[in-house]
User: Which sequence fits this backbone?
């Protein structure tokens, strides 16, 4: 019986794994929850998470089945007839792979022969890469994972090409080329994580190189062709390599063609994911067998496997994929809100034509598939695209509303223009031309609008000069009002204006306004002296005291949470004398509508902040006309 250097360790670890699986199987039988066995066998948790338990009712209903299968396969309601046999096969594969990877090379009969330096370093890289692959779940940051992959896999691929005894230089050159392409693909992905789509062909190249994994697959095929004629490697090792290559290629094609699957198909695909360990087994066996000297390999040029063996291998690789094949009438649900393709929002002018249908589908997910506003949640992609184009071709609003009712929706066209622009820009552009703008054009438009509205405001007291001051068009939020406070301190007490518009508490001043959800003209001045009292022309004039322990008093801009919030004009620090007590005097009035532009603010505020120890509130002027 052949002995291995680490055979006892491999047996112990494999036995512990099988014991853990057996205990989990007992727990599965007692709880009737296959998630325990799935976790033990595959190492991934596929039970329902806490998020699913608190989701909307539609998620747990019949309509949410596809989404549940996508997020948490297979969970409690999955098909046990498919899961149990699959888990048994995957468990056997994992146990066998654990033994193959950990057993080490065969114990030499005598002193070990000296090895070339490149072979020794290549074996070390193989061990490092296997260890890296086993801790992949710990890498939550994609960039860190890609960097680790680049440092471990690229040198391994290059050195593998150099330790081979090639029959011809052309095959070695081909393998080296594919290794360099795989490294370039990894660098491209890492750059995409940092800079996004930094060049026009990024998406296309990424799909060909990364999603399909063509360079890595081609490199492995070239290496296997070389191993077949290198007597150091056994026929079993080469055969495992071909099985690994075939299973990886089959899974890649299945994911590309099938897209988002139903629950049963996702279970099959998840089970087949366990075949990835064959690649690690092939690498480990390849490294162990290079310890044998080239001259003592004990075989000449190897004959290929018999036709019967080839047929059996092809059958084992292809038959499991039959479970992934769906009938033609099965809805194809490709995009959902959790896919990376749907997380990034783009405007129409910034979206390449080949991606516009995808953006339309991603944008209509919340309306068409999740049950919002009563849309069916089972419509496949082609139905969505067909309904969208039919809406574009319907000339009148009544016909569009009739189509929406026929589909079963209760929403209106106004909610769909942002998405329909990606299908029929010439139609939507006539109604909403602003949707055709690029991101840069939209930012310029928003900036011009802020500038235009701000130009309608001027300093109501230009003779009074402050240490810092600015006049802006200030946008109010829901409910109106704004605050002046010290950002370096936290005061839990809320200011109460009592009788009037201005209230103070601790380090915070709150000012009520007449309006809401609209701009006002606001002038803020930081003074080192007490200004004279000026009441003429103002309806409300109130003064309160406030403290600043941190030496700052800010009047922050209201942010709506949009990507254009940074374009709003900001106001300066109003604490001119640093830490201490201040008085805040607020002037409020309604501007005369005559002579104002259509979009000019009709409410005007003047805020004066100056040193003062008093905390008393003083109402200098008060009018009930607009209160």
Assistant:
């Amino acid at each position: 019986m052949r002995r291995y250097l680490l055979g006892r360790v491999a047996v112990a670890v494999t036995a512990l794994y099988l014991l853990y699986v057996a205990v989990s199987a007992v727990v599965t039988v007692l709880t009737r929850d296959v998630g325990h066995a799935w976790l033990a066998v595959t190492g991934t948790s596929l039970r329902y998470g806490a998020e699913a338990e608190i989701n909307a009712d539609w998620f747990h209903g019949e309509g949410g089945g596809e989404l549940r299968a996508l997020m948490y396969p297979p969970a409690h309601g999955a098909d046990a007839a498919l899961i149990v046999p699959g888990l048994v096969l995957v468990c056997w594969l994992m146990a066998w792979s654990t033994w193959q990877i950990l057993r080490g090379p065969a114990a030499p009969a005598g002193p070990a022969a000296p090895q070339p330096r490149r072979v020794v370093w290549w074996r070390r890289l193989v061990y490092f890469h296997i260890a890296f692959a086993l801790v992949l779940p710990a890498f939550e940051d994609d960039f860190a994972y890609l960097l680790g992959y680049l440092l471990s896999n690229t040198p391994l691929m290059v050195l593998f090409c150099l330790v081979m005894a090639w029959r011809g230089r052309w095959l070695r050159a081909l393998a080296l080329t594919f290794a360099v392409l795989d490294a370039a693909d990894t660098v491209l992905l890492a750059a995409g994580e940092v800079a996004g789509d930094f060049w026009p062909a990024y998406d296309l190249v990424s799909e060909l190189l990364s999603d399909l994994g063509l360079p890595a697959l081609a490199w492995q095929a070239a290496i296997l062709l070389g191993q077949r004629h290198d007597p150091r490697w056994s026929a079993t090792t080469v055969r495992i390599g071909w099985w690994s290559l075939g299973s990886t290629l089959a899974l890649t094609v299945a994911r590309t063609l099938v897209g988002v699957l139903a629950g049963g198909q996702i279970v099959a695909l998840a089970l087949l994911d366990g075949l990835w360990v064959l690649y690690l087994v092939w690498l480990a066996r390849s490294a162990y067998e290079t310890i044998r000297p080239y001259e003592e390999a004990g075989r000449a040029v190897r004959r290929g496997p018999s036709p019967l063996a080839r047929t059996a291998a092809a059958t084992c690789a292809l038959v499991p994929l039959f479970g992934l094949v769906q009938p033609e009438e099965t809805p194809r649900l490709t995009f959902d809100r959790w896919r990376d393709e749907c997380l990034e929002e783009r405007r129409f002018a910034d979206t390449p034509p080949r991606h516009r249908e995808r953006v339309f589908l991603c944008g209509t997910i919340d309306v068409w598939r999740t049950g919002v506003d009563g849309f069916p949640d089972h419509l496949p992609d082609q139905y969505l695209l067909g309904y969208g184009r039919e809406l574009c071709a319907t000339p009148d609003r009544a016909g569009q509303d009739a189509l929406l009712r026929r589909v079963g929706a209760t929403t209106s066209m106004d909610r769909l223009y942002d998405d329909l622009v990606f299908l029929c820009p010439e139609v939507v552009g006539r109604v909403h031309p602003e949707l055709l703008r690029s991101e840069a054009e939209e930012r310029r438009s928003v900036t011009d609008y802020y500038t235009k509205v701000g130009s309608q405001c001027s300093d109501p007291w230009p003779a009074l000069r402050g240490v810092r001051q600015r006049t802006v068009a200030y946008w109010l939020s829901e409910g109106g009002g704004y605050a002046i406070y010290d950002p370096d301190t936290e005061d839990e007490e809320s200011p109460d204006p009592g009788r009037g518009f201005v209230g103070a508490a601790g380090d915070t001043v709150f000012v009520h306004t007449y309006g809401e959800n609209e701009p006002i003209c606001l002038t803020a001045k930081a003074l080192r002296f007490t200004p004279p009292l000026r009441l003429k022309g103002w309806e409300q004039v109130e003064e309160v005291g406030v403290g600043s322990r941190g030496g700052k008093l800010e009047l922050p801009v209201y942010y709506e949470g949009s990507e254009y919030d940074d374009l709003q004009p900001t106001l300066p620090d109003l604490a001119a004398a640093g830490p201490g007590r201040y008085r805040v005097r607020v002037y409020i009035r309604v501007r005369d509508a005559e002579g104002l532009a259509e979009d000019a603010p009709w409410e005007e505020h003047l805020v004066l902040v100056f040193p003062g120890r008093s905390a008393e509130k003083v109402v200098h002027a008060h009018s009930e006309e607009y209160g």
